[in-house]
Design brief:
342 residues; Dna Ligase, domain 1; 3 domains; two-stranded antiparallel sheet; two-stranded antiparallel ribbon; disordered C terminus
Length: 342
């Protein structure tokens, strides 16, 4: 009697197993099938925090996969339900669903590699981004100069200039300008944490801003890294003596960013007389804001300048990029300064 009762149960288990295997085979077969009626690549944007169900529906709506339910089942069985990375994806017509899944898990978006060099201004960065169709230059500059955004980012100024950290970024065409600024400032904060160490805790927002201004000048002056802390020492020493910083870099900034002139190959004496708050030949102290977006070398030099009594420097060798440093104006003049533009 007991044996007869076990037989139907065994039969049901076998039927269920065969049905499950059949469903899995069917699901696998569907995953191997390319979605029909699509001859061109399809682009699908997956938002941060999107659920597997919504992603599957979006892929089906774009005719990337033949079945949203089977695709979602496959992702769950693969343990990849939460492994989908946000971004914009491009799917070729011949791509089977399992390859679609692999792209989503790898985060193989259409992001472009964008290199932002050290010492560029926000305007120059905007041109780089626009040239690669990442974002419109005017939209990026509007985000940079948005006082509401700078306040959210903890920058004590009306602009994010100086905090747009030079780095290699992976950005998608048509990216949101504000998000790019947020990402660049986040990279700046991460770099500062590494450079400053415990010193960062002693700097309030305004003190850090002044260091960024100083670093932005150092960035535009030095050519070899070992000179950066020495140049920083000259500026620090001049500030302590209430001497004008007399940085040619600030004059070039005025000429190019405020007056719209091309970058000069030579700074003439007449240029030094241009009236502008950023001209450190006419105004004592630091300029009102950063003149570039400095990298790690300049930020480190601004935070940890060399201990010297130097008050002057000049380019000593244009081929090597080395500067010569002097303690007095006489030493500086004897070093070979040649008046230009007279």
């Amino acid at each position: 009697m007991e044996q007869m009762m076990k037989m139907p149960n065994l039969r049901k288990i076998m039927q269920f197993s065969l049905l499950s295997i059949g469903l899995l085979v069917m699901a696998f077969s569907i995953l191997m099938v390319v979605a029909p009626f699509r001859r061109a690549p399809a682009e699908v944007k997956i938002k941060n925090g999107a659920t597997l169900s919504s992603v599957s529906r979006d892929l089906r709506a774009a005719n990337v996969i033949p079945s949203s339910k089977i695709f979602a089942l496959y992702m769950r069985l693969a343990g990849a339900e939460r492994a989908i990375k946000p971004g914009t994806y491009r799917f070729e017509p011949s791509l089977p669903p399992y390859e679609v899944a692999r792209k989503l898990i790898r985060g193989d978006t259409i992001a472009l590699k964008v290199m932002i060099p050290e010492g560029r201004t926000a305007r120059q960065i905007a041109q780089i981004l626009e040239s690669q169709k990442i974002v419109d230059a005017s939209a990026f500059l509007a985000a940079v100069n948005d006082p509401v955004l700078t306040e959210k980012l903890g920058i004590p100024a009306k602009s994010s200039e100086g905090y747009l950290f030079p780095d290699t970024y992976f950005l998608e065409p048509g990216s949101d300008a504000e998000q790019i600024v947020v990402q660049m400032v986040a990279n700046f904060r991460a770099a500062m944490k590494k450079i400053a160490g415990e010193m960062q805790d002693t700097l309030n927002a305004q003190a850090l801003y002044e260091k960024v201004i100083l670093a932005s000048m150092i960035e535009r002056e030095y050519r070899v890294p070992e000179d950066a802390p020495l140049i920083a020492s000259v500026f620090v020493n001049r500030l302590s003596k209430n001497m004008p910083l007399q940085s040619c870099a600030t004059v070039v900034y005025v000429l190019t960013e405020h007056l719209g002139r091309p970058h000069p190959s030579i700074v003439y004496y007449n240029d030094l007389r241009v009236k502008d708050p950023y001209n450190t030949y006419l105004n004592r102290g630091l300029p009102p804001g950063p003149i570039s977006n400095p990298g790690e070398v300049s930020l480190k030099a601004a935070l940890f300048p060399s201990k010297t009594d130097f008050l002057y420097f000049r380019l000593d060798d244009s081929s090597s990029g080395k500067h010569r440093f002097s303690r007095t104006l006489q030493e500086h003049n004897e070093a070979g300064i040649i008046p230009k533009g007279l």
